[in-house]
Amino acid sequence: MTESGKPVLYSYFRSSCSWRVRIALALKGIDFEMVPVNLIKDGGQQFSKDFQALNPMKQVPTLKIDGITIHQSLAIIEYLEETRPTPRLLPQDPKKRASVRMISDLIASGIQPLQNLSILKKVGEVSKDLREETKLTWAQNAITSGFNALEQILQSTAGKYCVGDEIQGGFHTLPHHQLYQQEAAGLGGLPAVSPLPAARYTHRAEGLAPKSCPISTGAQGQKLGGLKRPGNK
Amino acid sequence: MTESGKPVLYSYFRSSCSWRVRIALALKGIDFEMVPVNLIKDGGQQFSKDFQALNPMKQVPTLKIDGITIHQSLAIIEYLEETRPTPRLLPQDPKKRASVRMISDLIASGIQPLQNLSILKKVGEVSKDLREETKLTWAQNAITSGFNALEQILQSTAGKYCVGDEVTMADLCLVPQVANAERFKVDFTPYPTISCINKRLLALEAFQLSHPCRQPDTPTELRA
């Protein structure tokens, strides 16, 4: 916590994992301080000695709150849910809670780690292929495999949102990935996705993602209207 | 559920994610039916039409219980915790719960997906390199990055086990990941805390009963 007593979130504007936590904090009306960690600049600020001491995995998000430091976005969100329970991010019914966690984990373990900056860098190295195309194809495959499964799962869980009609933990991860997917696959969007769910995703994404902040696959480090806050790092 | 009403677990003997759930079921004394899904035989039984209908991610573990089907090992374990709460797998204190989930997620999102069968196959394809060495190096790097971090984190969370002195979901993730690390010939010299906790946990009955070497689908040559 800062001297003000507010939680401190270490975040990167374009990190989908950081965004999940930012959504949770916004939904729960929790005031916090943001410390940006640029994953590309200076060789990657997550590799600094200071940040490594804070999070040995050298990843964002990391949240300092109530005297403790938590990493892993879903662990952070579950802690926020247990200590600041309104509005709810998990339903009360255990079977619905299982659906929410299943979808969240599908994305957080089954898609995101297979297409993040770190792994795409390793893919480039192991393929000895500096073409962006190789990394793009890898990322697309990771996302489409996961989205193919998710699309099917949502047929039985979804109401207005991922699970029923209330915003849940699993929903948070969708809009960001949809943006990447659209970008990666071309604005034609997902192939073979039925129009209704795709429209639902796009509608949600439009509702949440600032239109003035397009995300591009441009050269690394290109900032396109990302949140700028006076950093205190 | 089967006609007997028991939960049904789709599992592969050597899948670390399946092992996590097997430990949970054993610790909680939950009787269940096992349906083995061989991830290699027949091109991978997880790709069958039937299994795909059950789990569109085409992965184990998958658990049919109480009229629903759940995938993702940690979602399964949290469901078991909420519906069969004793013995506990998560502490009562929210801060300790956060530590348990953080360690579990570090392993389940930060290590395992980067070294499982599926990704190693893709690594082989993208590197156009059929040598096992390339895949082995990739897997070792994924594991050592994660274990370097975990060893540090455990300095502040661990007692007898990963978080304090009771077995938690974090321990259920640790042991199978250590087994993977051993298969990939990771050097454990830098990980004394991980090694010590692992050894302590393996002495417990639930970890032994659920061990890959004692499953219905364990090949003869790997049986204990």
Structural overview:
Two copies of one chain form a homodimer. Chain A has 233 residues and is of the alpha+beta class. Chain A contains eight helices and four strands, in the order βαβαββαααααα. The first copy, chain A, has a four-stranded mixed beta sheet with strand order 2-1-3-4, covered by helices on one side. Chain A is flat, with a radius of gyration of 18 Å. Residues 171-233 of chain A have low confidence and may be disordered. At the A-B interface, strand 4, helix 3, helix 4, helix 5 and helix 6 of A face strand 4, helix 3, helix 4, helix 5 and helix 6 of B.
Notable traits:
homodimer, 233 residues, alpha+beta, four-stranded mixed β-sheet, 46% helix, disordered C terminus, EC 2.5.1.18 (chain B), tyrosine catabolism (chain B)
Short description:
Chain B: Belongs to the GST superfamily. Zeta family. Two copies of one chain form a homodimer. With about 230 residues, chain A is an alpha+beta fold.
**CA-based shape of chain A:** flat
Number of E-state strands of chain A: 4
The oligomeric state of the chains shown is: homodimer
Quote the beta fraction of chain A: 5-15%
Structural class of chain A: alpha+beta
> In terms of per-residue confidence, which ranges of chain A show pLDDT below 50 for 5 or more consecutive residues?
171-233
Sheet having the most strands of chain A: 4 strands, mixed
End-to-end Cα distance of chain A, whole Å, is: 14 Å
Sequence of secondary-structure elements of chain A: EHEHEEHHHHHH
